[in-house]
Specification:
The chain has about 325 residues and is an alpha/beta fold. It folds into two domains: about 150 residues, Rossmann fold; about 110 residues, no CATH class. Helices cover about 35% and strands about 20% of the residues. It has eleven helices and 15 strands. The chain has a seven-stranded parallel β-sheet, sandwiched between helices. The protein has a two-stranded parallel sheet with strand order 7-10. The chain is globular, with a radius of gyration of 20 Å. The termini are far apart.
Length: about 325
C-alpha cells in the first residue's frame, strides 16, 4: 500500500503515519516538517501547501491520501494534484449547525476562503465544510470522517488528560469536583483507534460520510472508567452547571475550565453522535480505562487544585 499523508508531524496524522509504517506500508508525509518530528520509517516530501504541489506529489501514483487540513485552499490544491487516489479527509463534528442535536444535518454554511482562526475561531467548522466539498467534488473516491473529541497519547489540548491526572492525584478518599449532572452524556475517541480505522478505510477504499466518535456514555461512567484506568478511588461531588457558571468556571477546555463539561441543553447533541455506522464500517474502540492509563503522564489543562478547593468550599457553604 502506497500512502500519502498530508501532514504527519502531530497527533492524528502522526498516528496515521506511524501505524501505516507498522503495517509495512510505503508511507510518505508531505509537509513542511516544521511542526514536529516525523515518525521513523516515513519518507519526507517537503511541501509548503500555500504553494502548488511539487511534481513528486502529483506524480506519486498513491493508493490513498489522508488529509487533516482545515484550510480550504490547501485542500483544493491537493485535490487538483491528486484526484485519482482514494481520499480519506478528516473533518469535524463542528460542521454541524445545531449543537443541541446529534443529527448529521444541517451543516453550517461553508467558508471557502482561508481564515486565520486566531482572528475568528468560529470559522473552523465552516472552513471544514468547504474542505469536505472540495474532496467530494474533486476526487473519484473519498471518505469523510467527522470526529468528535479525539483523545489519547500526544494530545496537546490537555482536555481529557485533566481527568486521569486529577483522579490519580486525588488519592484514597479524595473529594473530586465533577461538573454538571452525572447523567450528562459524553463521548471520546482514542486517536489510535481513529487512525487504525482510517488506515483500514484506505485499504478497503471505504466511501461515505461518517461521524468518527466513541461510545455515548454518562459522564459519571466515563469518570468511573478513568478512575479504574489509573487505579484511583475518590468521592465525586457533582456541582450543577448554573453554580459553575456563577463561579466563572469555563466549559470544555482551558486553564479556567472543567474539561468535557458543556452547557446543557445547548450542547446536548455535540457529544451524543451515533457511533454505530462507523462501528459497522470497521471502527474498533478500546475501553476508556485503557486510554486513561496511557495518558496519565500527558499534559493536563484545567482548573488548579486551589481553584477546585475554592469552588467546592463555596458549593458546600451555599446552604
Amino acid at each position: 500500500m502506497k500512502l500519502l499523508v498530508l501532514g504527519g508531524t502531530k497527533f492524528l496524522s502522526r498516528s496515521v503515519a506511524t501505524q501505516a509504517v507498522e503495517r509495512g506500508w510505503d508511507v510518505t508525509c508531505a509537509c513542511r516538517g516544521t511542526s514536529g518530528p516525523l515518525p521513523e520509517g516515513v519518507t519526507h516530501l517537503p511541501w509548503d501547501r500555500s504553494l502548488e504541489a511539487p511534481a513528486a506529489v502529483a506524480d506519486g501514483e498513491w493508493d490513498a491520501v489522508v488529509d487533516v487540513s482545515r484550510t480550504p485552499s490547501h485542500v483544493r490544491r491537493a485535490v487538483a494534484a491528486l484526484p485519482d487516489a482514494h481520499w480519506v479527509f478528516v473533518s469535524t463534528i463542528n460542521v454541524y449547525a445545531d449543537n443541541s442535536s446529534p443529527a448529521m444535518e444541517p451543516l453550517v454554511e461553508a467558508i471557502t476562503t482561508d481564515v486565520d482562526l486566531a482572528v475568528d475561531a468560529e470559522a473552523y467548522g465552516p472552513m471544514k465544510v468547504a474542505c469536505e466539498q472540495a474532496v467530494i467534488e474533486g476526487t473519484e473516491s473519498s471518505m469523510i470522517v467527522r470526529p468528535g473529541l479525539i483523545v489519547g497519547p500526544d494530545d496537546g489540548s490537555g482536555r481529557f488528560s485533566y481527568w486521569p491526572e486529577r483522579l490519580a492525584r486525588g488519592g484514597l478518599g479524595g473529594e473530586v469536583l465533577a461538573p454538571g449532572s452525572p447523567s450528562d452524556v459524553v463521548q471520546v475517541i482514542d486517536v489510535r483507534d481513529l487512525a487504525a480505522w482510517i488506515l483500514d478505510a484506505c485499504a478497503a477504499r471505504t466511501t461515505g460520510v461518517f461521524d468518527g466518535v466513541g461510545e455515548i456514555m454518562p459522564i459519571a461512567q466515563l469518570l468511573d472508567e478513568v478512575a479504574a484506568g489509573v487505579g484511583a478511588t475518590g468521592t465525586f461531588t457533582w456541582v450543577d452547571s448554573g453554580f459553575l457558571e456563577e463561579q466563572g468556571v469555563e466549559p470544555w477546555a482551558g486553564q479556567a475550565s472543567l474539561p468535557l463539561w458543556l452547557p446543557r441543553p445547548e450542547y446536548d447533541g455535540m457529544m451524543s453522535h451515533d457511533p454505530r455506522p462507523a462501528i459497522d464500517a470497521g471502527l474498533r474502540l478500546r475501553p476508556v480505562a485503557d486510554t486513561a492509563r496511557d495518558t496519565l503522564d500527558e499534559v493536563a489543562i484545567g482548573i488548579s487544585p486551589v481553584r477546585e478547593a475554592e469552588i467546592l468550599a463555596a458549593w458546600h457553604a451555599r446552604d
